[in-house]
């Protein structure tokens, strides 16, 4: 039986929720990605959501004694091996971590096709992660906020 999310997970889910709202706002303001200020804000919020997802996974790997990830992306694989998230979600979140690394470390120029994808539908992977971990996030302006469920309620 799953346990309710703790404060660490709820705080990270709240960050993800806020970032998704901002991703949607910035993308709506410049869907062609021609305005660099909007692109920067969009990228920053994707990075923040990625980092919150990584922090969630690292926390769960640690508290659940699921293994020792050698890098951020591997933590999602350990969640998959622990049956906390499905394989497809682990794969998507690994890819999102790769995008985050490119954005932060500027290994190469950001691929605008990837930005479009994340802003249109890729952000849903963050929602799926929260859902898999027992939290419901509301990613619409004026939403009710992050909630968690407990199977006995």
From TrEMBL:
Keywords, comma-separated and alphabetical: Hydrolase, Nuclease, Toxin-antitoxin system
Keyword Nuclease tagged: yes
Superkingdom: Bacteria
Family matches, as Pfam families: HepT-like
Keyword Hydrolase among UniProt keywords: yes
Sample GO molecular function, one term: hydrolase activity
InterPro entries listed in its UniProt record: HepT-like, HepT-like_sf, Type_VII_TA_RNase
GO cellular component: toxin-antitoxin complex
Database matches in PANTHER family: MRNA NUCLEASE HEPT, UPF0331 PROTEIN YUTE
Family statement drawn from the similarity comment of this UniProt entry: Belongs to the HepT RNase toxin family.
Protein name as catalogued: DUF86 domain-containing protein
